[in-house]
Design a protein that fits this description.
- By secondary structure, the protein is of the alpha+beta class.
- Among the domains are: 111 residues, Immunoglobulin-like (Sandwich), CATH 2.60.40.420; 93 residues, Cupredoxins -  blue copper proteins (Immunoglobulin-like).
- Helix content is 38%, strand content 19%.
- The protein contains eight helices and twelve strands.
- The strands form three sheets. Strands 3-2-1-5-8 form a five-stranded mixed β-sheet. A five-stranded mixed β-sheet has the order 4-10-9-6-7. The protein has a two-stranded antiparallel ribbon with strand order 11-12.
- A hairpin with a 4-residue loop joins strand 2 and strand 3.
- Helix 2 runs antiparallel to helix 3 and helix 6 crosses helix 8.
- The N and C termini lie far apart (63 Å).
Length: 336
């Protein structure tokens, strides 16, 4: 019976460990920028020092326990009271270790704080519970999906509008708090092509776990093309159903929160800019794949898709009919 309980415990423990195993899981152990590499190297150095200190201290402890243990019940081990040389040594040794660690840490923090000339300027505004992304020099505003050219430094200006958030792309750069009323900076230079996953790393409310975003690192040519496409005004609806959806959007409450570039009435800023929604891979702050079925589910009941978000059917938005939803989905799916 006892063996069975032990076996079950081992299986459950291994299953719990397996939860953290994923080929697509973001991790700072696989850095994709010089900044992330510096932070990882600093961690590895401090971890190595900590392991050495642990091994030395535990070895000395075990030696003392075994070497000076009582041999029998009638024997009293030698009583030692004070040793000036050893006390000085075990005071200076940790102090020296801390000085070395502090030196490497200060060196790394100084390097991470440098902003290379010619860096791409991107303003990120954190809101409950999504990310607004503005390319300052390009005049582009989007949401939850950041496009960057490979091998070009980017300087993020981070600001919150409600509560404290934290901007973190594990493989590209360290966490940076996003604080209302204060602009913080985060700089890195991506050196690997691909899509990297980011996350709010500071508890910010009920939908904190679903406040995600993606960073797409691409060639300079692809980035420039993306910027050119994002600068365009809203696409003209291609079908009658899409035109009907456009009217539903412009005459309904959608315009109170969302912007459509080129529209005279859709200039809301509470929610994401939807001008090129269909060019993104996800929506709802990076948690839902963008396709027609998911858009229908979202418009029917946003709370069922992402609990806690500010769109609530019957409250902040009206309850839509199936016909209205189909028209809106057709319209939104064409916003590329």
């Amino acid at each position: 019976m006892r063996q069975s309980i032990t076996l079950v415990f081992i299986i459950l423990a291994l299953s719990a460990l397996n939860v953290g195993c994923s080929p697509n899981s973001p991790t700072w152990l696989n850095p994709a920028s010089p900044n992330a590499t510096m932070a990882t190297n600093l961690f590895n150095f401090i971890f190595t020092v900590a392991v050495i200190v642990f091994v030395v201290v535990e070895a000395l402890l075990l030696y003392s326990v075994l070497r000076f243990r009582r041999k029998n019940e009638n024997e009293m081990p030698a009583q030692i009271h004070g040793n000036a040389k050893m006390e000085i040594a075990w005071t200076l040794a940790p102090a020296l270790v801390l000085v070395v660690v502090f030196g490497f840490t200060l060196q790394t923090l100084t390097a991470l704080d440098e902003v290379p000339p010619g860096a791409l300027q991107v303003k990120v505004t954190a809101r409950q519970w999504w990310w607004q992304v503005e390319y300052v020099e390009q005049g582009v505003i989007t949401a939850n999906e950041i496009h960057l050219p490979i091998n070009q430094a980017v300087n993020f200006s981070l600001e919150g509008v409600d509560v404290i958030h934290s901007f973190w792309v594990p493989e590209l750069g360290g966490k940076t708090d996003v604080v209302p009323g204060k602009i913080n900076k985060n700089t890195f230079r991506p050196t690997k092509l691909g899509t990297f996953h980011g996350q709010c790393a500071e508890f910010c409310g009920v939908a904190h776990a679903n406040m995600r975003f993606t960073v797409v690192v691409e060639s300079a040519e692809d980035f420039n093309k993306w910027v050119a496409d994002q600068k365009k005004d809203i696409a003209i609806p291609a079908s009658d159903l899409a035109k009907q959806g456009e009217q539903e959007f412009l005459k309904g409450v959608c315009i109170a929160c969302h912007t459509l570039n080129g529209s005279a009435v859709a200039k809301g800023v509470t929610g994401p800019n939807l001008t090129h929604l269909a060019s993104r891979k996800t929506f709802a702050a990076g948690i839902i794949e963008l396709n027609k079925d998911n858009l229908k589910a979202w418009l029917k009941d946003p709370q069922a898709v992402k609990p806690g978000n500010l769109m609530q059917a019957g409250k902040t938005i009206p309850i839509l009919t199936d016909a209205q939803i189909s028209a809106l989905v057709e319209f939104l799916s064409g916003l590329k």
